[in-house]
Design goal:
The chain has about 210 residues and is mostly helical. It is about 85% helix and about 0% strand.
Length: about 210
Amino acid sequence: IEALLPQWEQNRHVQAALGRAAALEQLQQWQVALTILGEALQAYPASEELTGAARRVRDQLADHERQKKLVRRLELIGQKIAAQSWRQALTLLENTQREFPGAPELNPLRREVDAGLRRSECEAIVTEVRQCLADGEPEQAEQVLRRGLESLGQESALEALREELESEGKYREELRTAQILFGRRQLQRSEERRVGKECRSRWSPYH
């Protein structure tokens, strides 16, 4: 009995430490549980039960810390999205994807950021085209719009703007043609009046 007593005492202390650590695991108090298991391992370093339990708790703690970090990143990305800071949101998102590859929580955020960037680029193009038109630079406006269509493809806002520019271009062309024709008619009438005046002067009885 005296020979078995040390082993019995070890088993009792090991089971007590494992019991307290398991209770703390249920409360998600992994750091405290790891401390208890570490103290028990100092007394019984050869215990496979304590070693296995410590490894399991250590993995749970690391996973918990990793998940907390991911949640903080998701919140920060969400703030940038809410502020429509699309470039900053994209940078944070790409960094987070590299750190947490395959995290499913990032997929809907990526779609939202991509859509926001696309809208932002489209709005910037529309604004630049409008500014060119306001400055009386229709050719520059057409170039900006053409680059936008090549970059973004079929966007309803850009398509509507393209139709507007085409209509505006046709109107300018028609106006230019009308001005040319009007100028020609004016010149013809002026020439007819000049010729008529010369004829009347030539056949005048007082000539």
